[in-house]
Amino acid sequence: MADQSIISALILGLIEGLTEFIPVSSTAHVLLAGHFLGFKSPGNTFAVLIQLGAILAILLVYFSKLLQIVLALPSDPRARRFVAAVLVAFLPAAVIGALAHDFIKTILFETPVLICIVLILGGIVLLVVDRMQFRPKYRDVMDYPLSLAFKIGLCQCVAMIPGTSRSGATIVGALLMGTDKRSAAEFSFFLAMPTMLGAFVLDLYKNRDALSFDDATIIFVGFLMAFVSALFVVRSLLDFVSRRGYSPFAWWRILVGAAGLVGLLLMG
Q: Which residue ranges does UniProt annotate as crossing the membrane (predicted)?
């Protein structure tokens, strides 16, 4: 049984890392895969806690740029505005996430049919937005005004419904408000750092009494696999989006959502 849990954790960690930063909803993929694998974790903590691996992956890839921004803070107004923009964008999710945490984890995370439907609907939205012709006003994340960042942060809150996708919500919101595709994805990367770290700390605190040593081992395995696979995605995603746009991810969402509904109908 322990070996089966380790294998499931490896699979789910791989899925988390591959899907966290693309607009397909990593939480939906991990929850659906866990459902069909028969994998359960106390308080549904696994899907949230292994995101730390993805956070560390993006910190590693962007370490040089983050260090430059930190060193420039005392003298560079653009650096200060960028840091403020990320914090302002993070604020709505921090407040709503803390208030609605229990409802999200006990109701929404336990409704696989809802997750599948949201995957399909989100895919349709992404297809429509990807085919729209925009004239971007913002092409550099360092130049995003605070008002734009706050609106993107509000869009991110929609992703508390599993299946929506945090990156998908922020990217679609950013595109509709005048950014180009590459910078929208990059801002989503930076916004992921405080958002996912905050979710990790809150979930760990809320479930501190429910976790055991065996749970910690399984979570570490998933975390490690998420870290390795997320490294690959973060290094290649921006170039892929610049060339192909978001329609491949939209079709993938629709396919996974439809397959999930068929699986639930056949298997329960």
A: 43-62, 82-101, 107-129, 184-205, 217-238, 250-267
Q: What is the CA radius of gyration of the chain?
A: 18
Is the model more confident about 73 or about 46?
A: 73
Residue linked to tokens 């992404």: 126
Rounded to 5 degrees, what are φ and ψ at 210? Answer: -95, -15
138-149 confidence digits (pLDDT tens): 999 999 999 999
Q: Secondary structure of the chain: what % helix, strand, coil (to 5)?
A: 80, 0, 20
For residue range 131-187, list pLDDT tens digits in order.
888 889 999 999 999 999 999 999 999 988 888 888 889 999 999 999 998 899 899
Of 190, 267, 225, nearest to 54 by C-alpha is 225
Euclidean distance between the first and final Cα of the chain, in Å? Answer: 22
Check: CB of residue 162 under 8 Å from CB of residue 118: yes
The lowest-confidence range among 144-148, 186-190, 216-220, 246-250 is 216-220
Question: Which phi and psi (to 5°) does residue 170 adopt?
Answer: -70, -40
